Amino acid sequence: MLRNKTELKTEGFTVKATMKNSVVVGPPAAGAFRERPSKPTTFRKFYERGEFPMALEHDTKGNRIAWKVEIEKLDYHHYLPLFFDGLCETVHPYEFFARQGVHDMLEHGGPKIQPVIPQLIIPIKINSGDGIDYSQQKRENIGDLIQETLEVFERYGGEDAFINIKYMVPTYESCMIS
User: pTM of whole model > 0.70?
Assistant: First the structure.
């Protein structure tokens, strides 16, 4: 029912026109492709304060970490969980130092690693199954790496390793069951 030129009432709602040539404006952009900065990790905070005994070293083979102390003498209870926390970093140099630091410490840590395993469960819960494939550029899927790491923890972490992992990551399934 048309009451006047600017108002139309039909089945419980009213449409009002303000001009003859009105333009419908769509909804604002959702921002699905907008970069969303992540919260700074504890790793980043420590790095920015200069609390890691390391520096970036450039050579003909690329970049590597120049450790300022012998890596075997590091306090693994303190540093290894921090480096694992930094694995979710995506910006250089944090991403590089976190990945390379974890690699170096695991390679040289020997018996110092096993006692730290319970502290590593929380930091590696990052992307343990969010469905996003992070492997496009580096041919590494962080979700797969986390799964492999949890399996290594279970195999070599002692008799309570599975219980501790399952408590912190309820979706984890044992790799020891045949």
Answer: no
